[in-house]
Every structure is written in structure tokens, then in C-alpha cells.
Amino acid sequence: MIKVPPQFTPQVMGILKKYGETLKEEWLFDGSLSTTLEIPAGVQIELIDRINSISKGTSQIRKVS
Q1: Residue 39's closest CA among 26, 57, 23, 25?
Q2: CATH number of the domain within which 26 lies
Q3: How many domains does the chain have?
Q4: Cβ-contact 35, 28 below 8 angstroms
Q5: Contact 20/49 with Cβ under 8 angstroms?
Q6: Tens-digit pLDDT profile for residues 6-56
Q7: Sheet-wide strand order for 2-4
Q8: Of 34, 46, 49, 44, whose CA–CA distance to 65 is shortest?
Q9: Structural domain range at position 19
Q10: Three-state secondary structure along 7-50?
Q11: pTM for the complete prediction?
Q12: 61: closest CA among 34, 39, 22?
């Protein structure tokens, strides 16, 4: 599960589409994006690093089994 603040969603959306399949996408009342992706295990760290770099560490990322 990934939650991205509204000011970073345009940049992060493009990255998310490149890394995996969107299983769930929800736009929250404050403009934030909450999404669940299915990604290969080998790109997990790279994706987390890219999201944190863009959002300056303000995104919430949680692994869902």
C-alpha cells in the first residue's frame, strides 16, 4: 500500500505505472493517492527509493502480503 501526498501524485503516478500492476486506487478527500500495487520482489527497494526521493520521504509505504 502506498499513500502519496497530493503535491507529489503527478510525478509518482508515472513511476507506479512502470513498476507494477495497480490492484486498487483510491483518491482521498485531501487529494492524496492511496494505491496498492503488485510488483516483482526484485524491484521493491528501487521503487521505494524512487518514491521517497520524489516525495522527500513524506509518502507512506507498507508491504501487504
Answers
A1: 23
A2: 3.30.70.240
A3: 1
A4: no
A5: no
A6: 999 999 999 999 999 999 999 999 999 999 999 998 999 999 999 999 999
A7: 21-27, 33-38, 2-4, 60-61
A8: 44
A9: 2-61
A10: HHHHHHHHHHHHHCEEEEEEECCCCCEEEEEECCHHHHHHHHHH
A11: 0.87
A12: 34
